[in-house]
Write a structure and sequence with these properties.
Among the domains are: 68 residues, no CATH class; 102 residues, Leucine-rich Repeat Variant (Alpha Horseshoe). The protein contains 25 helices and no strands.
Length: 437
């Protein structure tokens, strides 16, 4: 029976593997050919690919362990199987499961071997797909190396699709990958940066927003894809971009191309940039019909209210927000140092109503997450959730390390309300938002 099962797997694996796999099947029936080893990496892979859901768990683990014992050789053979067009859809999940059982270093060495030995865009794309499925932070350098050193034929739609699939999966699995991506991306040329920007559009995070904004500064010719990508990335409520990069983005609000300046406005509005609200008042006053529609949408997004397209009403609301910051906001922030917990909780509630300056208020409130007073910490978590500022997300993720179950629960509730994500494990939250200071 074992030999028959292996023969069934022959249709699933790459042609070079079939001879050895057939030899293993023959040996199981007592028909071993002269000179063929009893156990080979191809044979063990063939046997693994013959596994069915009915297979006993102990036997399944044993087969997987025998594949893993071959290390880099197993990784190379599995990648060859993956890249073989003859490999069936039913075999591919088993190939990935086997790759995940290997040490990542073995997989990376195998990918490097494939990369060094081929200029095939299809094979390079296959490697990117494998890394997206099994890789972590260590894979980022290899992913970008594949992108940076690929020959012109490989800089193609296929490679872009593979990169778009690989990067989000790696970034979502490993928070360390964000830092490596940010550092490595700066060395790419404009063509590769374009592919990277296209991929990061599908990997929303603060790191992705920063990398794309830096790419825009270095390569202004990429304004169209970069601003479109930023607008898509900023849809995710956990994406934060600091004041400096946002100021650079605001320069594109004066672009002569209508589509580019609209993309810039949409991205900045989704980032809840307060200065953009002021710029939108000017669009509402002096712009054409298209600019006025964009301005109203941006103002509604930044301020979280709906009003008609009337300059007078929008200007009054913005003036009210600015006056609040000067008259009451600053005084309330100063009161956060009060030794009276009841007063502090009351002030936190008042500050949570900020709209235009929600990011500034969030920055003032997040240090109180470390307050020893549980009432203050609970009030802060609720206020940060109501403010809806992505600036608070890293601090709330850090608060998940609090040893107190109740405090962790408050931070978790705030994160879920802010982001719309129902994650639980702090590791998953770190991978979603990137490094937490």
């Amino acid at each position: 029976m074992r030999g028959a099962a292996v023969l069934l797997a022959l249709a699933w694996i790459a042609p070079p593997a079939r001879a050895a796999a057939r030899a293993n099947a023959q040996e199981a029936r007592g028909e071993r050919d002269e000179g063929v080893e009893a156990s080979s990496v191809e044979g063990e892979i063939a046997l693994w690919l013959s596994s069915t859901p009915a297979l006993a768990a102990s036997e399944r683990e044993a087969r997987l362990a025998r594949v893993a014992a071959f290390g880099t050789s197993a990784a190379e053979a599995l990648i060859a199987v993956w890249n073989d067009p003859a490999t069936t859809a039913g075999a591919r999940p088993l190939v990935l499961e086997a790759l995940r059982s290997l040490a990542e270093a073995d997989v990376l060495r195998a990918v490097e071997s494939v990369r060094a030995g081929t200029t095939s865009a299809a094979e390079r794309s296959g490697c990117l797909h494998v890394l997206g499925e099994v890789g972590s932070a260590a894979s980022i350098d290899v992913v970008l190396e594949l992108l940076a050193t690929a020959g012109e034929p490989a800089v193609s739609a296929g490679l872009a699709r593979a990169l778009s699939a690989a990067l989000p999966r790696i970034l979502e699995r490993d928070a360390r990958a964000h830092e490596r991506l940010e550092a490595a991306a700066r060395g790419l040329d404009e063509r590769r940066v374009w592919l990277l920007v296209e991929a990061l559009e599908h990997a929303p995070s603060s790191t992705a927003a920063l990398v794309v904004s830096e790419a825009l500064q270095l390569h202004p010719a990429l304004a169209d894809p970069a601003l479109h990508a930023l607008a898509e990335i900023a849809r995710s409520s956990w994406v934060w971009l600091a004041d400096g990069p946002r100021a650079e983005l605001r320069r594109w609000l004066d672009a002569p191309e209508p589509a580019i300046k609209k993309c810039a406005a949409v991205a900045l509005a989704r980032l809840r940039d307060p200065e953009t609200a002021v710029a939108m008042l000017a669009w509402l006053e002096h712009g054409g019909e298209r600019d006025r529609k964009t301005a109203v949408w941006c103002l509604e997004t930044i301020l979280g209210v709906t009003l008609p397209a009337e300059l007078r009403r929008w200007r009054a609301l913005c003036d009210e927000e600015l006056a609040w910051k000067e008259r009451r906001g600053r005084r309330s922030i100063a009161t956060l140092d009060s030794r009276n917990p009841t007063t502090v909780v009351q002030v936190i509630g008042e500050l949570s109503r900020a709209r235009l300056h929600r990011h500034d208020v969030a920055a003032e409130l997040t240090p109180l997450l470390a307050s020893p007073n549980p009432g203050i910490q609970r009030a802060v978590c609720g206020a940060l959730a109501r403010l809806g500022s992505a600036r608070a997300v890293p601090a709330l993720v850090a608060a998940l390390d609090d040893p107190d179950d109740e405090r962790r629960g408050w931070a978790l509730d705030a994160l879920r309300e802010l982001t719309g994500r129902e994650l639980t494990d702090p590791k998953d939250w770190r991978a979603l938002v990137g490094p937490v200071d």
